[in-house]
Amino acid sequence: MDVGPVSAFYSFNDVEGFRARVSGQTNLKFHPKIQLEGLLAYGFKDQEWKYGASLKYSFRDNWRSFPQHHLKVSYLHDTKFVGNQLKFVQEDNFFLSFKRGASDRMLFTDRFVFEYFLELENNLSWTLSYFNTDQRPLGSLRFNFTDPVTGEKASYHSLRTSEVGLKIRYAPNEQFLQGHNYRTPIYNKYPVFTLDYKLGMDGILGGDFAYHRLSLNIFKRFYLSLFGNTRFEVEAGYIWGDGVPYFLLHLPVANQTFAYRTGAFNMMNFMEFASDRWALINIEHFFEGYFFNKIPLLRRLKLREVVSFKAIYGGLRSENNPNLDPTLVQFITTTTDGHTTPVTFTLENQPYMEASVGVYNIFKLIRIDLVKRLNYLHNPDIPQFLNVKGLGLRIKVKVEF
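RESULT FIELD:
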């Protein structure tokens, strides 16, 4: 039995206050084909218990071996920030508790997941899933709408989705850095394709909404000899359906912590933009000392240079736009001195863009980036650094491959 991660034992946020958590998972010594996971947490401000459990059964000799083939069933009763998606760390990680801007808009989620995963030796994988999720707003988050019959303002206590999902991923010649409970891909010169489809079912197993969601993501690493290497990612997606609430639309992965995240928009706020069609680009170039090696001191320290550019462009059809239909679940607003200001916007006018320049390999672990938000600077709660709006300093601890 492995207990942890230690970094999630203690965390805090504006809704739960001080949050204590204990979690763990079985290892191969318990059973080579079966893995059990569980968590128990408590918020001392909201005085709510959170818990979750999962069971994984492997059709291979053990659940960690490649290629994987397993069934997994899980249930989670816990809080989450809307628009915050993490891959290899927990959302209640202590170091991610330090956030800028408003951090009191959360969801309390009851989520059941059934997953069938099949991975082939050529690195083609299939994931067939069923999700049943009940979500209720916490903190200052609300599901407000106008009743179409009475014309009166009202609010949903919670909303439920019932989804079937299919994800196909192809990563030829991919290698992994294998951890106890996760695998980190070591990218090479070959592209990675991910096709993701979800079907929302209204009236089936409690589902409140009908929609189709389809996205395609392509990742490629380019090697440029003496000039280093470039990580290039593009994604496009579309959501079919009418009356889809904002929290089920595409919300770009935002980052309100002070840690740099490669896959997120580091100067964007949670739920700041919503779209039912979108295209994004994420470019990161590592010079691997091309400039610093020409400076004796920096060459001796083995520091490395990195630059990045990220952009996302999208749109929202009138059928899903709360600004045009008051009977839909309304976008979030904030009220200051009697003035109501929207905090969720659309991207029809121009793409959101941000860029950064940074130094990595500091003590072989640390990366520091100076990130600049290039537009939408008049939106509320824009971070600033050195009195420059949209500028921020972000830190990352990771060994780069």
